[in-house]
Amino acid sequence: MSTFQAPKGTYDLIPPDSARFLAVREAISAPLKRSGYGYIETPGFENVELFARGVGESTDIVTKEMYAFETKGGDRLALRPEGTASVLRAALEANLHKAGNLPVKLWYSGSYYRYERPQKGRYRHFSQVGAEAIGAEDPALDAELIILANDAYRSLGLREFRILLNSLGDKECRPVYRAALQEFLRGLDLDEDTLRRAEINPLRVLDDKREAVQKQLADAPLLRDYLCDACKAYHEEVRALLTAEGVAYEDDPRLVRGLDYYTRTTFEFVHDGLGSQSAVGGGGRYDGLSEMIGGPALPSVGWALGVDRTVLALEAEGVTLELPSTTSVFAVPLGEEARRVLFAKVTELRRAGIAADFGFGSKGLKGAMKNANRSGARFTLVAGERDLAEGVVQLKDMESGEQGPVPLDSVVDVLRERLA
Ligand code: ATP
Ligand code: MG
After folding, report:
1. Which positions fall inside the Aminoacyl-transfer RNA synthetases class-II family profile domain (predicted)?
2. pLDDT tens profile 314-344
């Protein structure tokens, strides 16, 4: 193993690719920022108990994928595998649900950790941008979140994603369905682990990715046929609102998702160009989570979109984001006096809001021009002793190749005009 190798299942974001990650985070969060969602940041780790209770003891995330550890002080912590439990914990701790109007609307962006088998689109460290609307039960809120995720993906130029939609019922109807499903699962030829899971959390068996299991589930009872009237009406309203806003979705009566806490509206964004890691994001309503972690009843809804897989989806569709060049002007000094003058000019340009960089180190004209080229700058400024004696710098347009002297005093104005 090389000393310079990132840990298994992780990778570094480095320029220029890292700019695309930033742009994706930006694009996903932009619709949230203009829809009343405030930014929240929570620690990268929490008490392990929060996830055990909040995500669910029987989920893969908690049983297999969590980085749990004991600190020197004896605390049992876990690197966060997902965002919702932490955000709700933080909102409860700060009493946000008591401070103002409900729902409390929050968005976040950060790193998450799961001990998984690394493959394309599946890493041990990955990024999500997420949103949570806490403390309101309103189908328009569910619709709002789905619309915002849809609009974010559209704004990136993605077209080949689909929205899968389902309702998981509530504490009225879900137990009836659960029992029916359990009865069905007991009659199948399943391994011991899966049978045990069927007893603890039968809905999760529907999420089993193995073909041998999926085959046997063809005739499994569907929650759709067990929804109570309230859940049915709620779901119909979410569907109607999405349709009215022109957001296409597919009803997927088998969609259950991997976390224990979902109720009613459940959805997943899938992209068909990603192979088996096809889910780019997902979310849903989690009316029971607050009580599960010891808080008051706070019906809530949210989603998380994976940044890594969204970037892969852009690649799969051949979408290239129009990222402005990071440097507009590159200054190349020839000699000590020019070095001081141009360094001051670069600082002045930056303070005027123009992205500028400088030929650092003593590498001569040729080497410095190479750097200027690599920077992607539209213009270079070159100055030597003779230019300074005349009070000018040479301004070169790197696109047209045109070059000519510009008075030192008007460099900033000229560049501002030509970059506009
Ligand atoms: P999967 O079924 O692919 O394991 P999931 O249901 O575990 O996905 P969620 O918990 O819903 O995923 O997380 C939301 C999003 O975060 C996913 O749709 C995906 O884009 C991203 N994500 C989850 N786990 C990983 C991972 N290990 N590596 C990269 N991205 C991930
Ligand atoms: Mg997973």
Report:
1. 24-324
2. 999 999 998 877 899 999 999 999 999 999 9
